[in-house]
Design goal:
This protein is an alpha/beta fold. It has 25 helices and 31 strands.
Length: 710
């Protein structure tokens, strides 16, 4: 429980100081100035009092209960201090100091020593390497930022500068604010998912805003996010999207797995609103904390100029939002109050109809919001500036409209947004809208992005399924024959299944594949080939040669007996040249697959999220096009469908230029089988099915590679 940490009723400042430039002074000064509701205990063996408060030699000297310690001393002193905190019964500590794992091996050792001391003494840690934390409700400001705005957003951030940026933006906007800020820092003890669970249960927090650089327990976070996002929106900006994932020589999947792709897909599947531009982060959080989600992905645009209306329509369409198809009743009602030149086809352009009386905006909004096809309203243009731009008396009509819009927003379960060129001006009408929790933006792009996020969240809530929760039922569907295949490899000291073993394993779970037979001699190869109808493919079988083509160990379209014998000898010779020390088991002889569309499926273990699956265009094109998508396992049938749709090449599967399409149903089933295999056999480190030949009816896993954990 983090209750006594984040809602501490007493705080000890360890490293308290009279030096005004020191954190130990600034923390006490801020707590006193902000009117912290709890008790403050300075700790410094060299001082008797600081800022009028009695100073203690050690935390164990404090006679009263202490919930939280703010430790401002150097990194090397912290393990011993935590022992004293444990002796005092302190629930948690905020570790300001850097100098831990971010500095290398020596820092990692010190950080582990600190964590061990904390666990041994039952002290939970925020940080280290953190700017601190703030509880706005109890005025517990352990950061020192002046006058942070209070509101309904909880902020989790791994950058002090990003936190300052967001808090400053909220202050300037004069709308929206925070319940808590936690500088997560190195996340050495309290993890992201633990904070999520706390904020999910906090009645004052309506949305959770996150800036993440990396997390240590990604799967636990996804599981908690999946539970939280159905109740409260989570908005997240992940840095490091361009960083390349670690390359693995073992498979295509390992080398293609980009951390950004994996993380983004995983976050979105957990219901998290992923933001890629930092200037959109707070506006979206403000929006989701104050506005209801759009339930039908369709909105109406109300504008006082064609230019803004057109741009808004383009932006919303780019985000995948529909412009609501207005009913005839709605159009007729609009025509009665607007001039003949007005456009009543969404987007609605009032065409000067509000010039003399801006309160007509409210009349139009009421009509539009009554339309069942409209899930939300975006007003764009000059509202709030008529009294500034044209005539002061018009401000009265704008204020009347603002009051009416506020009442509509509170009465209906549909969001109202306003884009105004006069957002930065002193406009009472716009201040009234903010008072009614109607977001006002001067950027049309950000206004549309915020509305798009309301649609995204609404769409997620409609499709939420409690069983898609990132939880594995390990070995539940494992088969005895499958266990035996893996155990035989392990007993030999191998970490790679031979191709025929891999195909046997996946065939046990229903994957369509032609296993063929393994020949140790040319004559055996001929015997196997004679039992196969049509031409055959022949491949080297060796645990030391993973990429058979690199060793010229594959020969295609082999026909009569003489060709089979010759191919056998050539493949063996090529393998020996490629790797003279290779353990060559023989040559696999299998049916030659018919031509079709090549796709790839693979799985790997991601450092943050555990087992993930990849799907995309296959063959050599996987390296050239890199048209792939990643999902965190396990996957549901709906997830398999979405994976396929998320690739640029998905249109090919439906058929192009008169060509027939391909068997998407069987492909979705194979994705599910891959998920089942990983869940059934935890020994699997990676799988790589490339190519898979997809046909109009059915498919064939032509090559299968399975790598086991070492």
């Amino acid at each position: 429980m983090l209750e006594h940490v984040l809602n501490a009723r007493s705080v000890a400042i360890i490293g308290a100081s009279k030096n005004k430039t020191k954190r130990g002074y600034q923390a006490i000064k801020t707590l006193l100035a902000d009117g912290y509701e709890g008790e403050i205990y300075p700790v410094n063996p060299k001082e008797d009092s600081i800022l009028g408060l009695k100073c203690y030699k050690d935390i164990t000297d404090i006679p009263e209960k202490v919930d939280l310690a703010l430790i401002t001393t150097p990194a090397r002193t912290i393990p011993k201090i935590l022992e004293n905190c444990g002796a005092k019964g302190v629930a948690g500590a905020v570790i300001i100091a850097g100098g831990f794992r971010e500095l290398g091996e020596k820092g990692r050792v010190l950080e582990q020593e600190m964590v061990d001391a904390a666990k041994a003494n039952q002290v939970r840690l925020i940080g280290p390497n953190t700017s601190g934390m703030i509880n706005l409700k109890s005025r517990m400001n352990l950061v020192g930022i002046q006058d942070p705005p209070e509101g309904s957003i909880a902020l989790l951030c791994q950058s002090g500068n990003m936190a300052l940026t967001l808090i400053t933006e909220a202050t300037i906007r004069k709308h929206g604010g925070f319940t808590y800020y936690v500088g997560v820092g190195n996340e050495s003890d309290i993890k992201f998912h633990e904070y999520l669970a706390f904020f999910r249960n906090d009645p004052d927090t309506k949305a959770i805003l996150m800036y993440v650089e990396g997390m240590s327990q990604g799967r636990e976070f996804l599981q908690e996010a999946y539970n939280t996002s159905i109740e409260k929106p989570i908005i997240l900006l992940k840095s490091g999207r361009s960083a390349k994932g670690r390359k693995s020589a073992g498979s295509h999947t390992g080398s293609l797995a980009g951390m950004g792709q994996v993380a983004k897909a995983a976050y979105e599947r957990a219901g998290i609103i992923v933001i890629e531009n930092s200037d959109e982060l707070f506006p979206v959080a403000e929006t989701l904390s104050s506005q209801p989600p759009v339930k039908n992905n369709a909105i109406a645009v109300l504008a006082d100029g064609g230019g803004h209306a057109t741009i808004a329509a383009d932006l919303l369409t780019d985000y995948g939002i529909e412009l609501a198809d207005l009913s005839e009743k709605t159009k007729e009602s609009l025509k009665k109050i607007l001039p003949e030149a007005a456009s009543v086809v969404n987007p609605v352009d009032v065409a000067g109809g509000t010039d003399a009386d801006p309160s007509i905006f409210a009349d139009c909004a009421k009509i539009l919001l009554k339309d069942p096809a409209v899930g939300g309203l975006l007003m764009v243009g000059l509202f709030g500036g008529y009294g500034i731009r044209f005539e002061k008396s018009l401000a009265i009509g704008e204020e009347q409209a603002a009051h009416r819009l506020g009442a509509m927003g509170r009465k209906r379960s549909k969001p109202i947004f306003v884009h105004s060129l006069y957002s930065a001006y002193d406009s009472h009408a716009l201040d009234l809208l903010r008072h009614y929790d109607i977001p006002v933006h001067d950027s049309l792009d950000i206004a549309c992005k915020s509305m798009a996020c309301l649609c995204t969240y609404g769409n997620y809530l409609k499709t939420y399924h409690a069983k898609t929760n990132f939880v594995f039922n390990w070995r539940e569907k494992a088969k005895p024959e499958g266990k035996a295949i893996i155990q035989a490899a392990v007993d030999e000291g191998r970490h790679v299944l031979l191709e025929h073993e891999a195909k046997q394993l996946i065939k046990l779970h229903g994957a369509p594949t032609s296993v063929g037979g393994m020949a140790k001699t040319a004559d055996q190869a001929v015997d196997i080939a004679r039992k196969i109808d049509g031409h055959v493919v022949m491949k080297i079988v060796s645990p030391d040669i993973l990429h058979k083509s690199d060793a010229n160990g594959v020969m295609l379209n082999i026909g009569d007996d003489s060709q089979v014998k010759a191919a056998f000898d050539i493949i063996i010779e090529n393998a020996r040249i490629y790797n003279p020390k290779a353990d060559i088991r023989g040559v696999l002889v299998a049916p030659m697959a018919a031509k079709g569309l090549e796709v790839i499926i693979g799985t790997k273990i991601d450092e943050q999220f555990g087992p993930v699956i990849m799907y995309g265009l296959g063959g050599i094109m996987v390296e050239i096009m890199k048209d792939v998508t990643f999902w965190v396992l396990p996957v549901s049938p709906a997830s398999c469908k979405k994976m396929i749709e998320d690739t640029r090449s998905s249109v090919i599967l439906s058929g192009v230029r008169g060509q027939k399409g391909y068997d998407k149903k069987t492909l979705r089933k194979l994705l599910g089988i891959c998920s089942e295999l990983v869940e059934s056999y935890p020994e699997i480190q990676e799988m790589d099915f490339n190519p898979i030949i997809l046909y109009e009816n059915g498919l064939d896993v032509v090559d299968a590679r399975i790598i086991l954990k070492k």
